[in-house]
Design a protein that fits this description.
The protein is mainly α. It is 74% helix and 0% strand. The chain has eight helices and no strands. α3 runs antiparallel to α4 and α4 runs antiparallel to α5. It starts with a helix and ends with a helix.
Length: 130
């Protein structure tokens, strides 16, 4: 499992997403740690398999509830799927875990085709804080 996970990460870094997906799916077939699930989410996201990416990110968060990067990326793929309400919950989780991610969250919200243009920074911070 560890070898497949490492090779999958290397394949992803080389932009060989198909090979990375095969290796990382093999690595997650048994009990894999949260970072392996996160890497699988990245690969699926790059392959535009947003449902599969969301599943992988959710598993990473389940295994490591303080995984801010997984929460951020979950928000991005949910936004790509057109589910802005769920995306905002994921972004809020990422923001609670790591307030320094505010810039990344704001960028994701304004750059995706299903995003919103937030003109009021304070309003966005309030939305993320609940």
């Amino acid at each position: 499992m560890e070898a497949a996970a490492r090779l999958g990460r290397l394949a992803w870094e080389d932009a060989d997403y198909a090979a990375a997906a095969i290796l990382l799916e093999r690595a997650t077939a048994n009990e894999a740690p949260a970072p392996v699930w996160f890497d699988l989410g990245l690969v699926r996201q790059d392959l535009r398999d947003y449902h599969g990416a969301a599943t992988a990110y959710r598993k990473a968060i389940e295994l490591k509830p303080d995984y801010a990067e997984a929460a951020l990326n979950l928000g991005i793929v949910l936004q790509e799927l057109g589910d802005l309400e769920s995306a905002m919950r994921a972004y809020a989780q990422a923001y609670r875990l790591r307030p320094q991610m505010f810039g990344s969250i704001a960028m994701a919200l304004t750059s995706a085709p299903h995003g919103r243009l937030w003109l009021d920074e304070a309003e966005l911070r309030r939305s993320l804080s609940g």
